[in-house]
Write a structure and sequence with these properties.
The protein has about 375 residues and is α/β, with parallel strands linked by helices. The protein contains eleven helices and 17 strands. The two termini are about 40 Å apart. The protein binds adenosine monophosphate and magnesium ion.
Length: about 375
């Protein structure tokens, strides 16, 4: 752990040696930001809020500092990190060239939940990009994230601030649950607004390739670029050999409980009901993750822990609540989470991508293209 002495007046509370820096309180925000920025400058690791999820930051130029991120998260070393910067000027030193499409997208969506993959310069060590010749960059929109990047004045590598594989953290409490005792500090700025990770778009090829759907939708990207984008994230696209984004091969976002995803389509409620009865019949404890519309039709679920994520008509809100709901159901001690699927369009694409990656079984709609996935 990094120890800072002398220059800070506030004595921040600690959990297992991790400082909890309360930046929600305007009286202390400045001091909290200074403290966090100093830790980054000294090669430490700090969790901080972004508009997507909480990130776990370290100096992207230092192999030693980013090594602490991989260690704290138990992240496989071949999964590269996203580098966070204050704007296009800072991107310049990290990449070989900035293509016109990057300017166009940066202008429209930065600061915001869009990550661009570009050819990498020599400034960053191989550890940050997992040995790739490309780097993923993003300008976050959260005011605390931007203020921290300004103060630290260095590119900050930051994956989500959770243990690898578990649901991403959307509050400081989620970070504490996963990483207290493993990192130097947590900058607490309240809940994240978007709630799912950024969209990752590779500009290494023409046409560009969507590597992860997220806070900026495919539809929005298409409007700006006015060209077709190759969507490698459609559920059901299988890879042979090396996946285009290393992160694609790992199970992600998964609660401790098994997750069964009931795809949207004909007889969805009936399929949920049958599944519930089957699980209970086998002595298992299910939990439900439903929309308000569907929950309304399940009046008999009073003994089943239920999380309502929003409405079918509002996948954006549902996405923002997803990870918190998964963690709460885990805390209820359920064996299986039965989750309702959404339409795969707009923010529903990001939501379904996370649910599919977390799922150990998919109950497809009748007439849908694929057989059920079992694990
Ligand atoms: P995380 O930071 O854990 O939310 O994940 C970052 C995502 O971006 C992962 O899926 C990575 O595989 C992907 N990524 C990061 N850098 C690159 C890169 N240079 N090329 C392709 N994908 C990348
Ligand atoms: Mg992550």
């Amino acid at each position: 752990m990094i120890r800072l002495r002398g220059c800070f007046s506030l004595d921040w509370p600690e959990i297992k040696g991790t400082k909890i820096l309360n930046a929600s309180d305007p009286l202390h925000a400045k001091e909290a930001l200074h403290f966090a920025a100093t830790i980054l400058q000294k090669g430490g690791v700090v969790a901080f809020p972004t508009e997507t999820v909480y990130g776990l930051g370290a100096d992207a130029r230092s192999a030693r500092a980013v090594g602490k991120i991989f260690a704290a998260k138990n992240r496989p070393g071949d999964n590269p990190l996203i580098v966070h910067v204050t704007g296009m000027e800072q991107v310049r030193e990290l990449v070989l060239e900035i293509p016109p499409k990057a300017y166009l997208l940066g202008e429209k969506f930065w600061p915001g939940p869009l990550t661009l993959v570009l050819p990498k310069s020599d400034l960053l060590p191989g550890e940050t990009t997992a040995g790739l010749h490309s780097v993923a960059v993003r300008v976050p929109a959260h005011p605390l994230a931007l203020a921290l990047l300004e103060l630290a004045a260095l590119p900050v590598a930051a994956p989500s601030a959770n243990l690898s594989g578990s649901p991403s953290p959307t509050t400081a409490h989620h970070v504490i649950a996963d990483l207290a005792g493993r990192i130097d500090a947590i900058l607490d700025g309240g809940p994240c607004s978007v709630g799912v990770e950024s969209t990752v778009l590779s500009l290494l090829t023409a046409p560009p390739v969507l590597l992860r759907p997220g806070g900026v939708t495919l539809e929005q990207l298409g409007m700006v670029l006015q060209e077709e984008i190759v969507d490698l994230c459609r559920n059901g696209v299988e890879f042979t050999g090396t996946p285009p984004a290393p992160g694609m091969k790992y199970r992600h976002y998964a609660p401790r409980a098994l997750l069964y995803l009931v795809e949207l389509g004909e007889k969805q409620e009936e399929r949920i009901n049958d599944l519930l009865a089957d699980l209970q019949g086998r002595g298992m404890r299910p939990g439900l993750l439903l929309t308000a519309e569907t929950a309304h039709n399940f009046p008999f679920t009073n003994h089943v822990p239920l999380e309502i994520v929003g409405s079918q008509r509002d996948p954006k809100t549902a996405a923002s609540r997803l990870y918190g709901a998964l963690r709460r159901l885990d805390n209820e001690g359920v064996d299986v989470i039965v989750a309702e699927g959404f339409a795969e369009e707009e923010m529903g694409r990001a939501l379904m991508n996370r649910l599919h990656k977390a799922a150990s079984r998919v109950i497809v709609a009748p007439g849908n293209r694929k057989g059920p996935k079992m694990r």
